[in-house]
Amino acid sequence: MENEFQEGKEEVIQAWYMDDSEEDQRLPHHREPKQFVSIDRLAELGIVSWRLNANDYENDEALKKIREARGYNYMDICDICPEKLPNYEAKIKSFFEEHLHTDEEIRYCVAGSGYFDVRDEKDQWIRIAVKKGGMIVLPAGIYHRFTLDTDNYIKALRLFVGEPVWTPYNRPHDHLPARREYVDAFIKKPTVSQAVEAL
Ligand code: KMT
Ligand code: NI
Protein backbone atom coordinates (compact mmCIF):
# COMPACT_ATOMS: atom_id res chain seq x y z
CA MET A 1 0.00 0.00 0.00
CA GLU A 2 2.96 2.26 -0.52
CA ASN A 3 2.44 5.42 -2.50
CA GLU A 4 4.26 8.67 -2.99
CA PHE A 5 2.01 10.44 -0.53
CA GLN A 6 2.88 8.09 2.31
CA GLU A 7 6.10 10.04 2.60
CA GLY A 8 5.67 13.04 4.81
CA LYS A 9 2.76 11.45 6.62
CA GLU A 10 3.88 13.42 9.68
CA GLU A 11 2.92 16.59 7.83
CA VAL A 12 -0.74 15.63 7.91
CA ILE A 13 -0.95 13.38 10.97
CA GLN A 14 0.68 14.52 14.20
CA ALA A 15 0.01 13.33 17.73
CA TRP A 16 0.88 14.47 21.24
CA TYR A 17 -0.05 13.96 24.85
CA MET A 18 -2.60 16.45 26.10
CA ASP A 19 -2.43 18.67 29.14
CA ASP A 20 -5.40 18.58 31.48
CA SER A 21 -6.40 22.23 31.36
CA GLU A 22 -10.06 23.15 31.04
CA GLU A 23 -9.41 25.63 28.26
CA ASP A 24 -11.22 25.63 24.92
CA GLN A 25 -11.26 22.10 23.46
CA ARG A 26 -10.29 23.53 20.06
CA LEU A 27 -6.88 24.66 21.32
CA PRO A 28 -3.93 22.25 20.85
CA HIS A 29 -3.58 21.39 24.57
CA HIS A 30 0.10 20.52 24.37
CA ARG A 31 1.89 19.51 27.54
CA GLU A 32 4.76 21.68 28.72
CA PRO A 33 7.29 20.67 27.41
CA LYS A 34 5.58 19.26 24.33
CA GLN A 35 5.36 15.48 24.30
CA PHE A 36 4.85 14.12 20.79
CA VAL A 37 3.63 10.62 19.99
CA SER A 38 4.93 8.80 16.92
CA ILE A 39 2.82 7.18 14.24
CA ASP A 40 4.40 3.86 15.26
CA ARG A 41 3.13 4.36 18.81
CA LEU A 42 -0.33 5.03 17.43
CA ALA A 43 -0.10 1.74 15.56
CA GLU A 44 0.55 0.00 18.88
CA LEU A 45 -2.83 1.27 19.99
CA GLY A 46 -4.39 -0.18 16.84
CA ILE A 47 -4.57 3.11 14.96
CA VAL A 48 -3.82 2.72 11.27
CA SER A 49 -3.10 5.75 9.11
CA TRP A 50 -2.18 6.85 5.62
CA ARG A 51 -1.35 9.98 3.70
CA LEU A 52 -3.24 10.28 0.45
CA ASN A 53 -3.72 12.82 -2.31
CA ALA A 54 -6.80 14.69 -1.14
CA ASN A 55 -6.93 16.72 -4.36
CA ASP A 56 -7.87 13.55 -6.20
CA TYR A 57 -9.92 11.55 -3.72
CA GLU A 58 -12.60 10.79 -6.31
CA ASN A 59 -10.20 8.91 -8.61
CA ASP A 60 -7.35 7.99 -6.30
CA GLU A 61 -6.01 4.50 -6.97
CA ALA A 62 -4.30 4.37 -3.57
CA LEU A 63 -7.63 5.01 -1.83
CA LYS A 64 -9.28 2.36 -4.01
CA LYS A 65 -6.67 -0.16 -2.97
CA ILE A 66 -7.16 0.58 0.71
CA ARG A 67 -10.94 0.27 0.32
CA GLU A 68 -10.58 -3.08 -1.45
CA ALA A 69 -8.02 -4.46 0.99
CA ARG A 70 -10.08 -3.51 4.04
CA GLY A 71 -13.58 -3.98 2.66
CA TYR A 72 -14.62 -0.33 2.96
CA ASN A 73 -17.51 -0.52 0.51
CA TYR A 74 -19.43 2.37 2.10
CA MET A 75 -18.27 5.99 1.80
CA ASP A 76 -19.88 9.37 2.35
CA ILE A 77 -18.83 12.95 3.02
CA CYS A 78 -19.21 14.79 6.29
CA ASP A 79 -18.83 18.54 6.01
CA ILE A 80 -18.62 20.01 9.47
CA CYS A 81 -19.75 23.61 9.40
CA PRO A 82 -22.94 25.21 10.75
CA GLU A 83 -24.47 25.57 7.26
CA LYS A 84 -23.99 21.98 6.18
CA LEU A 85 -24.28 19.85 9.31
CA PRO A 86 -27.82 19.55 10.68
CA ASN A 87 -27.94 20.06 14.48
CA TYR A 88 -24.42 21.45 14.35
CA GLU A 89 -24.10 22.52 18.00
CA ALA A 90 -25.53 19.28 19.39
CA LYS A 91 -23.34 17.16 17.09
CA ILE A 92 -20.18 19.09 17.98
CA LYS A 93 -21.00 18.48 21.62
CA SER A 94 -21.67 14.77 21.19
CA PHE A 95 -18.53 14.21 19.08
CA PHE A 96 -16.52 15.43 22.09
CA GLU A 97 -18.16 13.07 24.61
CA GLU A 98 -15.78 10.21 25.27
CA HIS A 99 -17.21 7.15 23.52
CA LEU A 100 -16.48 3.99 21.58
CA HIS A 101 -18.04 2.22 18.61
CA THR A 102 -18.53 -1.46 17.87
CA ASP A 103 -16.81 -0.95 14.50
CA GLU A 104 -13.83 0.98 13.20
CA GLU A 105 -14.13 4.76 12.85
CA ILE A 106 -12.53 5.54 9.51
CA ARG A 107 -12.03 9.17 8.56
CA TYR A 108 -10.18 10.70 5.63
CA CYS A 109 -9.66 14.45 5.88
CA VAL A 110 -9.96 15.99 2.41
CA ALA A 111 -10.15 19.62 3.58
CA GLY A 112 -9.71 21.53 6.81
CA SER A 113 -8.47 19.75 9.92
CA GLY A 114 -9.52 18.38 13.28
CA TYR A 115 -8.47 16.56 16.43
CA PHE A 116 -9.21 12.91 17.18
CA ASP A 117 -8.39 12.25 20.84
CA VAL A 118 -7.74 8.67 21.93
CA ARG A 119 -6.89 7.05 25.26
CA ASP A 120 -3.58 5.25 25.59
CA GLU A 121 -2.98 2.10 27.70
CA LYS A 122 -2.75 4.21 30.84
CA ASP A 123 -5.88 6.18 30.04
CA GLN A 124 -3.96 9.31 29.08
CA TRP A 125 -5.37 11.42 26.24
CA ILE A 126 -3.39 11.48 23.01
CA ARG A 127 -4.48 14.19 20.58
CA ILE A 128 -4.21 13.20 16.91
CA ALA A 129 -4.22 16.23 14.63
CA VAL A 130 -5.39 15.28 11.15
CA LYS A 131 -5.03 17.63 8.21
CA LYS A 132 -5.90 17.50 4.52
CA GLY A 133 -4.60 14.20 3.11
CA GLY A 134 -4.56 12.35 6.43
CA MET A 135 -6.65 9.21 6.80
CA ILE A 136 -6.99 7.36 10.09
CA VAL A 137 -8.71 4.28 11.40
CA LEU A 138 -9.67 4.16 15.06
CA PRO A 139 -10.18 0.51 15.98
CA ALA A 140 -13.50 -0.79 17.32
CA GLY A 141 -13.62 -0.47 21.09
CA ILE A 142 -11.10 2.35 21.57
CA TYR A 143 -12.31 5.24 23.74
CA HIS A 144 -12.06 8.47 21.77
CA ARG A 145 -13.64 11.82 20.94
CA PHE A 146 -13.48 14.41 18.18
CA THR A 147 -13.25 18.18 18.04
CA LEU A 148 -12.66 20.82 15.43
CA ASP A 149 -9.55 22.92 15.98
CA THR A 150 -9.51 26.73 16.03
CA ASP A 151 -9.80 26.83 12.21
CA ASN A 152 -13.32 25.46 12.76
CA TYR A 153 -13.69 23.38 9.65
CA ILE A 154 -13.23 19.84 8.40
CA LYS A 155 -14.49 17.95 5.40
CA ALA A 156 -13.99 14.26 5.94
CA LEU A 157 -14.85 11.10 4.09
CA ARG A 158 -16.43 8.50 6.34
CA LEU A 159 -15.84 4.93 5.31
CA PHE A 160 -17.36 1.72 6.60
CA VAL A 161 -17.57 -2.01 6.03
CA GLY A 162 -21.19 -2.69 5.04
CA GLU A 163 -24.18 -0.70 6.31
CA PRO A 164 -22.82 2.06 8.53
CA VAL A 165 -23.52 2.07 12.26
CA TRP A 166 -22.50 5.37 13.81
CA THR A 167 -23.84 4.67 17.33
CA PRO A 168 -21.55 6.12 20.01
CA TYR A 169 -21.43 4.28 23.35
CA ASN A 170 -20.43 6.87 25.88
CA ARG A 171 -17.92 5.84 28.51
CA PRO A 172 -18.24 3.62 30.48
CA HIS A 173 -19.19 0.74 28.18
CA ASP A 174 -16.50 -1.70 29.27
CA HIS A 175 -18.62 -4.82 28.93
CA LEU A 176 -19.33 -4.54 25.23
CA PRO A 177 -17.60 -7.34 23.30
CA ALA A 178 -15.93 -4.73 21.07
CA ARG A 179 -14.35 -3.13 24.14
CA ARG A 180 -13.23 -6.44 25.60
CA GLU A 181 -11.71 -7.45 22.31
CA TYR A 182 -9.90 -4.11 22.03
CA VAL A 183 -8.52 -4.44 25.55
CA ASP A 184 -7.39 -8.02 24.89
CA ALA A 185 -5.68 -7.05 21.66
CA PHE A 186 -4.07 -3.73 22.58
CA ILE A 187 -4.21 -2.90 26.27
CA LYS A 188 -3.45 -6.10 28.15
CA LYS A 189 0.27 -6.61 28.17
CA PRO A 190 1.44 -10.20 27.99
CA THR A 191 2.69 -11.49 31.34
CA VAL A 192 6.42 -12.19 31.62
CA SER A 193 5.83 -15.93 31.45
CA GLN A 194 3.69 -15.57 28.34
CA ALA A 195 6.38 -13.42 26.81
CA VAL A 196 9.00 -16.05 27.63
CA GLU A 197 6.82 -18.83 26.24
CA ALA A 198 6.43 -16.92 23.02
CA LEU A 199 10.19 -16.81 22.48
C1 KMT B 1 -17.26 11.26 14.81
O1 KMT B 1 -17.74 10.14 14.72
O2 KMT B 1 -16.76 11.70 15.86
C2 KMT B 1 -17.28 12.09 13.65
O3 KMT B 1 -17.83 11.73 12.68
C3 KMT B 1 -16.58 13.36 13.77
C4 KMT B 1 -16.48 14.04 12.53
S1 KMT B 1 -15.54 13.23 11.34
C5 KMT B 1 -14.31 14.35 11.02
NI1 NI C 1 -16.52 8.14 17.37
UniProtKB/TrEMBL annotation:
GO cellular component, one term: plasma membrane
GO biological process: L-methionine salvage from methylthioadenosine
CDD domains the record matches: cupin_ARD
Keyword Nucleus: yes
Residue sites binding Fe(2+) per the record: H99, H101, E105, H144
UniProt-listed InterPro entries: ARD (IPR004313), ARD_euk (IPR027496), RmlC-like_jellyroll (IPR014710), RmlC_Cupin_sf (IPR011051)
Topology with respect to the bilayer: Peripheral membrane protein
EC numbers on record: 1.13.11.54, 1.13.11.53
Residues that coordinate or bind Ni(2+): H99, H101, E105, H144
Subcellular location: Cell membrane; Cytoplasm; Nucleus
Listed cofactors: Fe(2+); Ni(2+)
Family to which this protein belongs: Belongs to the acireductone dioxygenase (ARD) family.
Designated name of the protein: Acireductone dioxygenase
Organism expressing this protein natively: Dendrobium catenatum
Lineage: Eukaryota, Viridiplantae, Streptophyta, Embryophyta, Tracheophyta
